[in-house]
Design brief:
- By secondary structure, this protein is α/β, with parallel strands linked by helices.
- A six-stranded parallel sheet has the order 7-4-3-8-9-10, sandwiched between helices. A two-stranded antiparallel sheet has the order 1-2. The chain has a two-stranded antiparallel ribbon with strand order 5-6.
- β1 and β2 form a beta hairpin.
- The longest helix is centred in the N-terminal third of the chain and has 20 residues.
- Its cofactor is heme.
Length: 404
């Protein structure tokens, strides 16, 4: 069915009648109006209900998609129009309302201008197109002096000064970690010449760093320092702001304490740890032989968060051993329990313990008075002192006693 006043297939009547002739029974173009064509005399009075019309048309199109193979050659130009309209409808579906269209030729739907046709300027309201509008592409001549060449600044030739300043700004512990990291990465390099070349670059940063890495790699003869394009600056003072340890949070807020418990655990000590951790803003999770829980000294049954085999100490920022003598003696025969304690000690974490946990500490090779990171929980203020000490996060001085 053609439009009453127009045979143009691009108008409303023509385009949908064209579909109907190929087996796509879309709605008639009138939609309650005698002359919907924008070329007709009544175009100014026609408002096209786009949302309802397109939604029903697209639904019909999807239902008869299997039949589209029959008339693919004839339908393809119109199908492209449908796909474009489908995308437009989905993009602005929330902005459509019956009888009028929002966000036509405008940004972010600043007006509710009505549309009369499907092509050309869709807005009735005037659009500001004056020069300098944000919609227009603006060009400006740049004012530059001198020659424009593709050259890096001279400062790019200095490859070592900032690296030297960074390394010297670290604490002794952090410098050791940097050397260990370089050693690990270079140990994966198969070509000895490349390992030596990196060590020669490290000599321009710090001789002690280069010697530490070379010794770990087994380089018997130190190479010469690599040639620097510009002299390395030694006047850059160390900056404490570059150190992570020196700028720690000073709080245990948001951290997690893992408490190793079993049958007979002192309920008062456990309650004290929970209270101190809650006051600090930290979390407490219980690790027991079984995840089902344990019977505390008060006779209460308390459920655990982890079983020992599934809750290693690497999951926590600090650990506490709240065990009875009998439970600790039994756990000394379990590798997972021994590793729980040994790993926490090797990772320089703070460890709180009760007197009953002594056998487990001894089995892991740890003496209760080895350093300040081992804190007794038996006294009245033990729990609060333990959580307060955890604000340091790690006791890095312990690394000297542990072979990592």
């Amino acid at each position: 069915m053609q439009c009453d006043n127009c045979t143009n297939l691009k108008c409303h009547g023509g385009i949908w009648s064209r579909y109907s002739s190929h087996g796509y029974p879309f709605f008639p173009s009138h939609l309650g109006r005698a002359n919907p064509c924008p070329r007709s005399a009544a175009a100014n009075d026609c408002l096209f209900p786009l949302q309802s019309f397109f939604s029903k048309c697209l639904l019909k199109h999807r239902e008869k998609r299997a039949d589209s193979r029959i008339c693919a050659s004839a339908f393809w130009p119109q199908r492209r129009n449908i796909m474009a309209l489908d995308s437009k409808v989905r993009e602005h579906r929330h902005q459509f309302a019956a009888g009028h269209i929002r966000c036509r030729d405008e940004c972010c739907a600043h007006s509710n201008a009505r549309a009369r046709c499907q092509s050309g300027n869709q807005s009735i309201a005037c659009i500001d197109r004056h020069a300098g509008s944000w919609r227009d592409l603006q060009k400006a001549a740049s004012q530059e002096d001198g020659q424009k060449v593709r050259l890096r600044a001279e400062s790019f030739a200095d490859h070592y000064s900032q690296a030297r300043q960074f390394y010297l700004s670290q604490t002794e512990t952090e410098q050791k970690h940097i050397a260990m990291a370089l050693t690990f990465e270079l140990s994966k390099v198969e070509t000895p010449v490349i390992r030596e070349r990196i060590v020669s670059n490290l000599l321009n940063i710090d001789a002690n760093l280069a010697e530490a890495v070379a010794g770990k790699l087994g380089i018997r003869k130190m190479p010469k320092a690599a040639d620097a394009m510009v002299p390395v600056r030694d006047d850059l003072a160390p900056s404490p702001a570059l150190s992570i340890i020196e700028n720690g949070p000073g709080s245990f807020n948001g951290r997690k304490i893992g408490v190793l418990v079993a049958n007979g655990t002192d309920a008062q000590v456990l309650k004290g740890i929970r209270h101190a951790a809650e006051k600090e803003g930290a979390m407490v999770e219980l690790v027991a032989p079984t995840v089902g829980g344990f019977e505390a000294s008060s006779g209460d049954w308390i459920e655990a968060d982890h079983m020992i085999d599934g809750g290693p100490s690497v999951l926590f920022d600090a650990v506490a051993l709240v065990l009875s003598d009998e439970a600790a003696d039994r756990l000394t025969r379990e590798a997972a329990a021994r590793d729980f304690v040994a790993d926490a000690f090797a990772h320089c974490k703070f460890i709180g313990f009760t007197a009953g946990a002594m056998p487990l500490l001894a089995k892991a090779g740890i003496e209760p008075d080895m350093d300040e990171g081992l804190i007794s929980l038996d006294n009245e203020k033990g729990a609060s002192e333990f959580v307060t000490s955890c604000r340091k996060l790690r006791l890095w001085a312990r690394e000297n006693a542990v072979k990592l």
